[in-house]
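Why show two proteins at once? Because comparison is the fastest way to build intuition. When a single record is shown, students tend to memorize it. When two are placed side by side, the eye starts asking what differs. So, the first record is below.
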Amino acid sequence: MLRSFALATLLLATTAHADTADGEALKVMSWDQIVAEAKGGTVNWFMWGGSDVINQYVSDHVGGILARDYGITLNRVGVADAAEVVNLVLSEKAAGVTDAGSVDLIWINGENFRSMRQGDLAFCGYTDLLPNNALVDWKNPAIANDFGVPVDGCEVPWNTAQFAFAHDGATLPAPPTSIPALIDWIKANPGRFTYPAPPDFTGSVFVRHVFYYAAGGAENLLGPFDQAKYDAAAAKTWAILNEIEPFLWREGRTYPNTIVQLNELFANNEVALTFNYEPAQFGLAVTAGTYPETTRSFGLTDGTIGNTNYTLIPFNSPNKAAALVVQNLLLSAEEQLEKAKPEVWGAAPAIDITRTPAEIQAGFAAIKAHPSVVPASELAQAALPELQADWITAIEDGWRANVGN
């Protein structure tokens, strides 16, 4: 269950242990010195809290290693959207809180990363300090750029992900596998589909798939925001989404607010399809008994969107050394393998596996995907790029004005 955001931030702001070294001082330290500086610290990690499996992995597994090996306390703070945390850091900066912020680490990407960069809210220029940074292929543009915004040493990759749909093979053996087929299927099966209202992260990416289709393909939208291209694709997108609205769950009179709510509708068989940016979630839900064992997932023949997500240290974190230790641990070959295991999480790695020791590579090769989870290699055959952040903001604002109203 998500914690009370306001209460958590108040408590954390008053109880966080602070490193004695500031960010610039850390940049001239050796890694051993940073680890020593971090000992006894507390890292307040604000992250999406909608998955019990991820929450348990972070709090128990990662937190346990940090406490045992580094003397660091990990305090996970669950939020509904990283935008809440961006606004918190922004408000602290406006109030002159420059070295005693309540946030030490954020799980982040996309528009929220862009906002942190634009507001000078991120601690930057430190990633080479992390020993495990050697495992990252920074020459890969999908890693070096976050939704088109250069990372420039301001965040550390954690996972890669690609969007996929899920259905119950027992009740829907032949699901629609393209956007035009899905549109036709929705009209022919009223009440059996819906999507979370943007700016919910997953609902927003579904809308972008329709936007890509309306634009004639993602290749027509790449690059900086183009108002003329946006207007042409947006008009078609809103027409499509308004056309299918009466055929949605509850006749489109309301939308789920979060992906968690959509997953509940699927689990209760109120809708026939769900989707997620991390297909591993489907297998975890089956294992937990939430979804039927006949659940299967799939990509679209016209492609699905993939991206990378990261962790970021705010400029005013009072526990930067401890946060660096957390980031280095998350980036390690061992932890990238651990969270890739289907029974743990099933998250795709953000490191270059070929740079890891032979035993780690063997561990990745030995992973057997859950039968409900579409193989990442299959999804990758039709991977679509993310748009630059300005496009996403415009699409979300356009949806609210033209569909969600």
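Second record. Ask yourself what differs from the first in the token line.
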Amino acid sequence: MKFLPVVYVVSLALVGLANPLQAQGLGGPSSVQADLAPGDGLTDPQFRSDFPQSIAPGWFAWKDGLAEQGFRFNLDYLTLLQSSSSDMGEGEGASGIFRFYGNWQATELGSLTFKLEHRHAYTDVAPQFLGLDGGALSITGTAFNDNGTMLTNLFWTQRAAAGNWTLQAGQIDVTDFLDLYGAVSPYTAFQNLAFNTNPTINTPNPGLGIAGGLQLGSNFYAVGSIADANADPTSPDLDVFSDGDLFKSVEIGYTSDFDRIYFDNIHLTVWQADAADDGSRAEDYGAAFSAAWFIDNTWLPFFRAGVSKGTAALYKRSVSAGIGYYGRNTDGAGLGLNWAKADGIDGDQLTAEAFYRFSISPGLQITPSVQFISNPLINTSEDEIVLFGLRTRIVF
């Protein structure tokens, strides 16, 4: 096999891997486990440069020494610049994210994962909201907002010795493992929410919760979660135990092999979110389907659809299809098309996104992208909106 994808980090520890550092529980392309793997976890990666390792060899040697003792961490900084053709709103958005994240393999079967972030905008409107600002019912820069300091991960993972189940408890982000496929991460793949976690799912912010995965035979698996529906990662607390407003999800999936769980994957997710006690959010529930299959370890065609009650999620109905590409030097690319219908708004909105991720080195990625939104649902004066973007990521 030419490439072994990052799937070992999302194997949910359902299949006991020989190296305990590679079996740290639930996680997908946007999780700490994936972000700790250089080159998106591809074996024998070939890069154009060794920057920034070349300018701070002592720092990286020290990190490697800690990793050998079971403690792995990264510091990284991401930026996203976007420009919109819309005649409404600001027209430009820029944002940055500083992250400190890692994992401590405390015992053979248990580990502690953490992630602390600071998200900040350089413009009046952050990229996450630039589409909305221009009249499209669309999150065009997922995660690139102005939320400030956030504790997005601080949880314990416990695995079975046989590798057939895993549990996580603590400050979790359900989007790290919910409704996954290979191009779900807004840090390395698509930027529009239409191609990230299904936009019909009313996912909560990172907060207190518990999640688990279970192997069902040789090809089937189940993943479930219960999390705080009112979570605020900028001010984490234990209020979930007093107010009882919860988000619940169950997913049943099929994979060709647990080493390829989110590249060869077909699954159905059902979820429900309680109404907020203060009346700010009605109860919501729905279901999502996803099918993606890695062909020749290069091409990743995908089809994803979802439906919800529609009172709180971005869309009431959504269908996405497209293809991902994994090339030499661990470059990545994607082309996606989405049809969406919103609750209480007449008309359909069509979205397309294309990106190409240049992996300059294990610690430097540059990703230009373009998004095309037809029939923007909250800007009836325009037929379409085009957004150009440039994302960078540097890892220390």
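One difference worth noting in the second protein: Residues 6-395 form a domain with the Porin fold (CATH 2.40.160.10).
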